[in-house]
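Task: sequence in, structure out. Protein: Large ribosomal subunit protein uL24.
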Amino acid sequence: MHVKSGDTVIVISGEDKGKTGKVLKAFPRENKIIVEGVNMLTKHKRAQGPNDQGGIIHQEGKIDASKVMYYCGKDKAGVRVGYKFLEDGTKVRICKKCGEVLDK
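Result:
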């Protein structure tokens, strides 16, 4: 998957097109991610006990990873992600626009 937890991404299609946010959680097997502030769902929660309060809860839902692009702070735009091997043999992600290494 081209994005990981903690990355900043921009949504390129759908209802939330143009929004940017941080990836909170990634689900590689499903090819889905949860982005903060994107795909907000409304959940009605019932009180589970005398001390627990019920109500309406707003939370982020999963979206497909193909609907987002990595947001490069240097380019101030969504960019494609490439892969490269360093001299020590580690595989890292790079920005295809500016060539910056994304994995520290």
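The two ends are 17 Å apart (CA to CA).
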